[in-house]
Design goal:
The chain has one domain: Creatine Amidinohydrolase (Alpha-Beta Complex). The protein is built from 4 helices and 15 strands. The longest helix has 21 residues. One cobalt (II) ion binds next to strand 4 and strand 5.
């Protein structure tokens, strides 16, 4: 059973969510063609420090950067590199997790670099809508399967698919806690949600096949078919009537 956030803890957790969201927005405003993913890492380090926070991902199981940057056919956990230059037409997910006051907020968005192709725009918009559909399914008494089912139905309707090998997770005083949050599922199945439970929803949506593979660096997850993937992530806390999205600005 995942830990439940108390009324006394919530303001601290909220703060971490807002700090992560502010850093992500800051990066979003700076993004343009010609920037490298290492530049994004530097932006995240500086902005996180400026807010009195720490990048939770840096050193996590040896992860070598402050942020995950996942471009085009990279599904998640891309490592920033000085030789990876953003080009007009690319899509790039920036995944920010910030620790402040002992609490973690985790949020990501996929940005379009300059004008992008029709397919790129479609997968990005579908991923954004899938996250919102997942959020809409959350309330006290709902099941985790309702969240996955809502995301899966929308993705299929849009002609896209959903990555199975990676999911959302409980979050709070640690970045990764129970439960695992699948982005596919059946309504009425899985963990029954209770007010105070906190987790992320972070659907990875593909234009082609949903199968992924891990690169030799041990982190970078890519689509097997090489087609593009997009992801959005929020940290939520279940409330009696719905949920509070801690990483919404
Ligand atoms: N923020 C990522 C997530 O959504 C965590 C990636 S772990 C890392 O769960 F070590 F790759 F950073
Ligand atoms: Co994340
Ligand atoms: Co996450």
């Amino acid at each position: 059973m995942p830990p439940r956030i108390t009324a006394r803890e919530l303001p601290h957790f909220r703060r971490a969510g807002q700090v992560a969201a502010q850093t992500l927005a800051h990066v979003g405003h700076q993004l343009r063609a010609g920037l490298t993913t290492a530049d994004i890492d530097a932006l995240v380090r500086d902005d996180t420090a400026r807010r009195g926070a720490r990048p939770s991902q840096l050193g996590y199981h040896g992860f070598p950067a402050a942020v995950c940057t996942s471009r085009n056919h990279v599904v998640c956990h891309g490592i920033p590199r000085a030789d990876e230059v953003l080009r007009s037409g690319d899509i790039i997910n920036v995944d920010v997790t910030s620790e402040v006051g002992g609490w973690h907020g985790d949020t990501s968005a996929t940005f379009c670099v300059g004008p992008v192709g029709e397919d790129a725009r479609h997968v990005v918009e579908t991923a954004r809508r899938c996250l919102e559909a997942g959020i809409s399914a959350v309330h006290h008494g709902a099941h985790l399967g309702d969240v996955g089912a809502a995301i899966e139905a929308l993705a299929r309707e849009a002609g896209c698919d959903v990555v199975r090998e990676w999911g959302g997770h409980g979050i709070g005083r640690q970045m990764h806690l129970e439960p695992h949050v699948a982005h596919v599922g059946r309504r009425g199945t899985g963990l029954k949600l209770k007010a105070g439970m906190a987790f992320t929803i972070e659907p990875m949506i593909t234009l082609g096949r949903p199968e992924t593979r891990l690169l030799d660096d041990g982190w970078t997850v890519v689509t097997v078919d090489g087609r593009w993937s997009a992801q959005f992530e929020h940290t939520v806390v279940v409330t009696p009537s719905g949920c509070e999205v801690l990483t919404r600005l």
